[in-house]
Amino acid sequence: MDIYTDVTDRILAAMESGDTDWLKPFTASTGMPVNGVTKNEYHGINVLLLGLLNPFQSNEWASFKQWKTKGANVRKGEKGTRIIFFKQLEKENRDTGKIDRIPLLRNSTVFNADQVDGYESNPVDLPDLTERLAHCDKYIDTLNIEFRSGSPCYIPSQDTICMPERSAFTGNQDGTPTEHYYSTLLHEVTHWTGHTSRLDRLADRSREGYAFEELIAELGAAYQCRILGIDLEPRADHAKYLGGWLKALKNDKKFIFKAAAAAQKAIGFCDSLQLSEAA
Asked: How much of the chain, in percent, has pLDDT values that exceed 90?
């Protein structure tokens, strides 16, 4: 099986059926997907696959054999979800005599905790919304971003994020922050990580380059929303990029992998600043 094609086809189906709302199911506040046995978080494209394409309430996943070690059994008839991982193949180099390590893409099938018997999944215990939004403020403050007033955008030449007043966002009737405000802000924060002084990701100024960067920011915002426990509000202006994303996905089977990896790297950069501040 062509793993790249398989994953790309699943993302294509989500985009074609969900339009600008294609990431909305992914940001239900159930926490980042984790392995139910090892408790390790999934990363990169697997975050997208396990969060976006499944309707389950639990964020815990494991293979058939792993659930067995917990005394749990996958129910008959349940369909697993394919994820991917890289495995190192060691091969002797005939010219040098040294061992070369070659990364090979492999796939595995996992099942959600909602699909098994004999295991009680621990629900994600989220604080109330006011506390979560306050945490978002603290998260943003730690990044030391320069802001100015204006329509939502990131200006690389000035290394500045423009954001309107919070009262401009739907649902904000009493002046309190909204999830819509923060999901929009986190999109721009992902762009901000691409500056030359950070991850240096914004050099391609072509139409295709802009569309690719918008996909990275879309995924980055979704990842951060999931981590922070808030819902993503799909941006209407991304409808203009959807056709470009679909075309790119059909032409390049590694396109979504590259975007997911770049989004994960952006989140990792923000996390490193959080750790640095805490130290």
From this structure: 48
